[in-house]
Sequence to fold (185 residues):
Amino acid sequence: MAAGFLARLPKVFFRGNFPKALVTSKCVRRGSRPVYTAAGLRSLTRYDETTINVDWQKKLTPEQYFVTREKGTELPFSGIHLNNTEHGMYHCMCCNAALFSSETKYDSGTGWPSFWQVHGTVDSDETNTNALRRTDNSMGSTGTEVICKKCDAHLGHVFDDGPEPTGHRFCINSVALTFKPKSAQ
Fold:
């Protein structure tokens, strides 16, 4: 039985067995990671063509660029949204995707705006939100980075020491966010 499988194996990897988009795709470097340019291939973070070609350094301030595109962190207790108590929605600075409701914001004492839930979460399902969790090993230990699903902007990190009902603390950089008051929505 194993011999039959091995005999068929080269046929499985024959170039004609793959979709044409995979065989003819080109890998182009945009920033620090490759983006495949063939039609039909998509990033896990759902790039659209208008966002891929944005010159982020022209669109953002140096601090916004450092935090959102180079995965930096603003100084604690320095962010404009840290003490904001208005009702409304926090959006991605880069692409304007709705990320967090002021109803889930709380004072964690850490120096960054903190939220216990991403906007659009149903029970504990974050599938229909605009935020994505990604493993982050950049600080010498394993953590969980929070990025924007629409444009791949680094937002901050999430920790499991938040308040009920979720137990999560989304610790987000103010410069990665814009705020729209409820009255303006």
